């Protein structure tokens, strides 16, 4: 039997459409009454007005119509994703013409030569630009042109397609996650919640900065690992294919002539005008499509392309992104099925009931996870804000939670989900352009999340909001750290930096000396000890007692290890390799943590 291969984006999205259609047979149909909000220019649901309506389950015909309805509503002819799809096709033609002139190849060669030995710093430099677009005006669909532009540059620098996709998608995504003045998320949500959008700004800036640093650092590390060893790439099996696809027809040693410089200036100016138009002039897809169509013609003329070359190249470029246009429309079809089946408001109503009457801490955490679920079904940040904030924000008053925290929970949840949800046309479109399967992208993001969670666990002693005596078993603690995936981010140097300056950490420094830390496994074990000491907050005198008891506990190491092997079936490990872990086990008991006396007689 052959190895399972994860299905394509088209299959994943159609499966979700079928799943949502099935939900319309199970989830009761219902609606909120709606009123026009003049500030938003949209109708918003009214809290307390939810009522059941006649069911409208979506059958086979509705499912097969959903992708087409994703382009436009067949009954009202209202545009759906057709404007975005057209924009993508125009962008494909535009990039095809720019590439045909040789300007892109000459520019890549110039940039690569200038950054020789410093290529990795191109990653945070580009990411900060996308993050700025995300936090200022919610850059999302506007990122689609940049994939075809930047992925060839990234691959030419020795990295892979995943790095190129991540620079754009994670860069803009982190910006949206930490939206500060984003009118399509923060401002709309604040208006719907009836609070100033500046409330909670400090927390959002902190989320933006910390999230960016962690994400950029992880991506830089991954990219350098791939550059040094291409087999470490998530798409290592497509290395030659991607190089051929993204660097096809690339000419070596091509000269950066005056005409090509002018083309690159016009090329960059087109994107600058696009950003200005969207953020300041109220432009959207139709205007952007017209902009790049005109720019493509001008660049073709400057590049001295014949009429046949210009039109043929434009069509060929659009053909390259035709699959992306289909992905975007199919993703939109999911929302079409939900709305037609009248289950969107029911899911919101259930969410409203789930958080009603909760305490402050439980409320805000529950709100975050509810927004995560809602974001999966409603990937549009503005759509989710208009739908959920008029209902959810007033509930914060009863839980004694400020409404700006509800907004921050909403935009953080939406931002995280929109980095990976298959229901987002932007995510699936970007992956399709980069030729990265959804399974591999999900795996890469999971690695990032695990790394961030492990660092948080090790250095703050927090896990899943639990503190104090609620988490005391060693197996639970060690499982949290052992699931870290073998990453070496928690190096001895990093841990010693955290330790340095903390009072009374002689015991930990002793661990460092005894184990001669140098790798991830030792670092994880040491991190456990740090968690213990930080939580127990021992006084210096108590630490001296611990040291004495710890020395006496050495006599039990052999017995402890034998029992540990029986308990965990890990005979393949060298006993000497586990000494640091055994010491932590003993210290946990001595520090008052609950450890089974039958197998740990310290």
UniProtKB/TrEMBL annotation:
Its main location: membrane. Keywords: Cell membrane, Membrane, Transmembrane, Transmembrane helix. It holds the Pfam family DcuC. GO terms for cellular component: plasma membrane. The chain crosses the membrane at residues 7-27, 79-99, 120-140, 146-162, 167-189, 201-220, 262-284, 318-341, 361-387. It is a multi-pass membrane protein. SUPFAM superfamilies: beta-Roll (SSF51120). It is found in: Cell membrane. It comes from Elysia marginata. This is C4-dicarboxylate ABC transporter.
